[in-house]
Design a protein that fits this description.
Layout lengths: L1 H6 L5 E2 L5 E8 L4 H7 L5 E5 L13 H14 L5 E4 L27 H6 L1 H14 L5 E5 L5 H18 L6 E5 L2 H5 L1 H5 L4 E4 L1 H9 L17 H16 L3 E4 L7 H9 L4 E4 L4 H9 L3 H12 L4 H6 L1
Parallel strand pairs: 2-3, 2-9, 3-4, 4-5, 5-6, 6-7, 7-8, 8-9
Antiparallel strand pairs: 1-2
Helix pairs in contact: 3-5, 5-6, 9-10, 11-13
The structure holds phosphoenolpyruvate (PEP) and magnesium ion (MG).
Magnesium ion binds next to helix 9.
Protein name: Multiphosphoryl transfer protein
Family: Belongs to the PEP-utilizing enzyme family.
Subcellular location: Cytoplasm
């Protein structure tokens, strides 16, 4: 079975009734891009740029970042790359940034909040991304968007940088990983170019369970119906406004989770590279109609255990 999946890894993931799902890769390093393409990825659904900033003594320069983003886009040979802007804070600590210690770092100055507070960090990254856009299709995605004000501020800064460079526009989207963004998905869908649902943080914040807490690990389940309803709200709003919606959190690679996500109407699943071939093979075994019925039953469940039983 494993070998059959590998042999068909460059073929699309299409349900038995002909509905195609894009399968993309989550990558952390530039060198991962060519590995992802060779593994059958149809794009990069999440490039975690914070990894360029970790394990060093100072932030990478605009030039260094430009070269990294350019190399990645070129390695994907025409497939699109979603570059997520810096998502530092929470569990990701960077000593040289001198971030104040916070009692609740997952609820503090992380992700887009940090970038908006530190334009000297954010602007060089945006410049590097817009310059790299000349070398292949890329999209910019902002992490930890909680309010429309977050979005307006991030979008306006990106637009200002783009104009200064006289660069063409690229699609601008948001991670949906904070419950407020899912609840207001209808409003966000009128504004953004695309959504990507981050189920790791969305689970953490919906269930109020620290994603790193060992005693909560088994309960912090992305298949919990409360989380699935957040995803449903988001996918609904996206489809109603003809906006593209992907999922880049861990349940996209889960054998059960991925099928429910397809049934909820997402367009793309972005997963770690080793999961790509098997995920494509799994989707080919089902019809969209069956997965839609499965998703509706999952939404009606009262607990994660009931969803797993399904
Ligand atoms: C997520 O939160 O689901 C996600 C994909 O981003 P990260 O795991 O980097 O927070
Ligand atoms: Mg996240």
């Amino acid at each position: 079975q494993h070998e059959r999946a590998q042999a068909t890894r460059f073929e699309p993931a299409q349900t038995s009734d002909g509905h195609r799902i894009e399968i993309a890769a989550n990558i952390n390093r530039v060198a991962d891009a060519s590995v992802a393409a060779a593994a059958g990825a149809e794009g990069v659904g999440l490039m975690r740029t914070e990894f360029l900033f970790l394990e060093r003594d100072s932030a990478p320069s605009e030039e260094e970042q430009f070269e990294a983003y350019r190399d990645m886009v070129q390695a994907m040979a025409g497939h699109s790359v979603i570059i997520r802007t810096l998502d530092i804070g929470g569990d990701k600590v960077v000593p040289y940034l001198d971030l104040p210690k916070e009692d609740n770092s997952f609820l503090g100055i992380r992700g887009i909040r940090l970038c908006l507070a530190r334009p000297e960090l954010f602007i060089p990254q945006l410049r590097a991304i817009y310059r790299a856009a000349a070398f292949g299709p890329l999209k910019i995605m902002f992490p930890m968007i909680a309010t429309l004000e977050d979005w307006y501020a991030a979008r306006d800064l990106a637009e200002q940088v783009r104009r200064e460079l006289d660069a063409p526009q690229v699609p601008l989207g948001i991670m949906v990983e904070v419950p407020s963004a899912a609840v207001l998905a209808e409003q966000f869908a009128q504004e953004v170019d695309f959504f990507s649902i981050g189920t790791n943080d969305l689970t953490q914040y919906t269930l109020a369970m620290d994603r790193l807490h060992p005693q909560l690990a088994s309960q912090a389940d992305g298949l919990h119906p409360a989380v699935l309803r957040m995803i449903d709200l988001t996918a609904h709003a996206a489809n109603a406004h003809n906006k593209w919606v992907g999922v880049c959190g861990g349940i996209a690679a889960d054998a059960r989770g991925s099928l429910i996500l397809v049934g909820l109407g997402v367009h793309e699943l972005s997963v770690s590279v080793p999961a790509i071939a098997e995920l494509k093979a799994a989707i080919r075994q089902h019809s969209l109609a069956d997965l839609q019925a499965l998703a509706q039953r999952a939404l009606a469940c009262r607990s994660a255990a009931e969803v797993h039983q399904l």
